[in-house]
Amino acid sequence: MSYIVDGLKLSTSSKFRFKRIIKMTLSPIIKDLISFLDLCPTALHATNYLLKKLCQKHYQELSEEKGMQIEPGKHYVLHNNGSALCAFITPHLTPKRLRLYASHLDSPCLKLKHFTQVHKHQSVLLGVEVYGAPLLTSWLNRDLGLAGRIIFKDQSDQIKETLVRLEDHSFMIPQLAIHLDRQVNEQGLLLNKQEHLFLLASLNDPSINENDKTTTFLETLLQQKWPVKKLIAYDLFAYPLEKARIVGYPPSMLAGFRIDSLASVHAATTALLQESEPLQDELKMVIFWDHEEIGSQSTQGALSPFFMQIIERILASYGASRSELFSVLNRSTCISIDLAHALHPNYANKHDEQHQVLLGNGITIKHNAQHRYATNASSFLPIYQAAQLCNINLQHFVSRNDIPCGSTIGPLHASLTGMPTVDIGCPQLSMHSARELMACQDHLDMCKLLTTLFALKKWPEATNFI
Question: What is 109-240's CATH superfamily?
């Protein structure tokens, strides 16, 4: 027997699968992820969003500068310079173990250069720096906004700081016409990062005097929404104005900017909020870093002392010694959550034949002999047992020997803390593009897996047989 659904003829089994997919994409979790992606064009916005959300859920905000009063059985959150965040639930007794989920809030993109404004050929152009390793061609011919943090003097000469989003007047990086680059489809597009990435902001307006240094073009734009008398400094990034959306038919995939790695951050936060009860003697924590895409060497990066200072202060609040702190770290597990390379159907030869990760086919465990990923047999065990409990399929990613893989904060955090670490992630296509793609079911599976790991009364461990 067959059925007609939205004009498509389906068998009985296909009808139920179609309805299941529709139900999946209408999931509150997927809707919340879409909202998160749309509202957080930068790591700064993501940190601010998460901070407000967790405070609304009765997490108490802490401050590193003012000291930390930490009590057993409570919920806490703090940020580091506005673009890294840590939230945790303290146990009732002195912690013996830490259950840690770690990811990052930044994404490859284009960052506005410091006070750059170019007037030439009757155009106003803004210069950018390349942040991380974006797919540069994906940024061409798109409506782009600017978002980030500004520090300015207001009309009363008071110095203020705020987050901004400039999207009413979009920018663009127009590509050279094919008539002037006739081999582009055969030889590929070559972009000079210095010459070819200026944001086209405006045609030269007679009211804009390029010799007038009192007000910049950027200040003129900002003054339409904020009381900016003089712009002092800023961290501004270009971002695509196109919203995240469900794609495919039946609708089963999610396309959007910054899926890598906001999807991981969203899954970890979802798990923390769903499993909010304190454990007896184990600490639940999520930590989200900035600057992963550029090496993590900053005050907000994974190589900073942010994590170690927090965990040391937590243990000290229970009266634990520094020696006990190191024992806790050695007994603990870090789940490093990022995105993974799904098999590209148009480029199957770029993937190892025995490790072809598929969209919608489950959580990916990432392995690398050079330890670009931190997974080993022992650290993989908790993921395996949790997946068995909640009936989630696992896939394993290993790159081709002749195509080096990327890396994550996992190995960095493991080497800094000594914590056993496993690298996992949802499969995705178009990684580092201005518009990435993932399967909705994989995100739901990740949320389920991480929630299960936080819910376990006893952490999975193998019996030593040696």
Answer: Aminopeptidase i, Domain 2 (2.30.250.10)
